[in-house]
Design a protein that fits this description.
single chain; alpha+beta; Glutaredoxin; five-stranded mixed sheet; two-stranded antiparallel sheet; 48% helix; globular
Length: 242
């Protein structure tokens, strides 16, 4: 995918988690943003380490109402194999670390755009197809759809897990804390040394309007009325946020 020309120092940072339902709800916004801006993904590890969970009735009863609300607000499809399959599969483990590592592995083997494609494929596999995205076999199959040979992917996945993953998750959480983000997803627009958290709530389900808004933001032509009144701006040099 080719990203249209934008100011070279303008980047949309996307702080996410592959097991975050609202991140899946925001997937059309990510796709739209990629048409006008460079987008960088930062996996936050919401369900990694001690927070990984085996599927059980408590987890299912917690996420299902949220998922139904996400579907209603965004139009994103949640498959029967997810609701009636994966969320009832008590052998399945929800662990954010492997899918985040998979995104990083694909990015290393190809480029940032391919990493974002991998993230989108992982989200569809989880929420639409009800697949176990924390398992290497599933992730390897998804990488193959992007033209990556299984042996190359598995080798790079292992390298990322050993050398890069922990630092990536830590850096993602530090970025989230630095800008005052409230959780996943958080979108941060970087223009030069300035970071601005964008309030995406009102754009859910409206990717074309969001794309137009981002284009204005990138060009610095957004009107006061279009700007987010509650947004947070941070200066990278001073570390000051207001």
């Amino acid at each position: 995918m080719t990203t249209p020309a934008a100011p070279h120092d303008t980047v949309l940072h996307y702080i996410h988690d592959p097991l975050c339902g609202w991140c899946y709800g925001a997937a059309p916004l990510v796709a739209a943003a990629r048409e006008v801006l460079s987008v960088q993904a930062h996996g936050g590890g919401m369900m990694a380490g001690r927070n990984r969970r085996r599927v059980d009735a408590q987890l299912r009863d917690y996420v299902m109402p949220h998922d139904h609300r996400i579907a209603q607000m965004t139009g994103q499809a949640f498959g029967e194999n997810y609701f009636d399959g994966l969320l009832r599969d008590t052998e399945a483990i929800f662990d954010s670390a492997p899918p985040i590592a998979a995104v990083l592995a694909v990015r290393a083997l190809k480029d940032e755009a391919a990493g974002l494609d991998m993230l989108a494929a992982i989200q569809r596999a989880h929420y639409q197809q009800g697949r176990r995205i924390s398992e290497v076999a599933t992730l390897t199959e998804l990488a193959q759809t992007l033209g990556i040979a299984p042996a190359a992917f598995i080798a790079e996945l292992q390298r990322v897990e050993q050398e890069e993953l922990a630092n990536h998750i830590e850096a993602s959480r530090e970025l989230l804390n630095h800008v005052g983000g409230r959780g996943f997803p958080t979108f941060v627009l970087q223009r030069g040394n300035t970071l601005e958290v964008l309030d995406t709530g009102r754009w859910l389900g409206q990717p074309e309007q969001w794309k137009a808004y981002l284009g204005e933001q990138a060009r610095g032509t957004a009107s006061v009325a279009a700007s987010d009144g509650g947004s947070v701006r941070c200066d990278l040099l001073s570390g000051r946020c207001e």
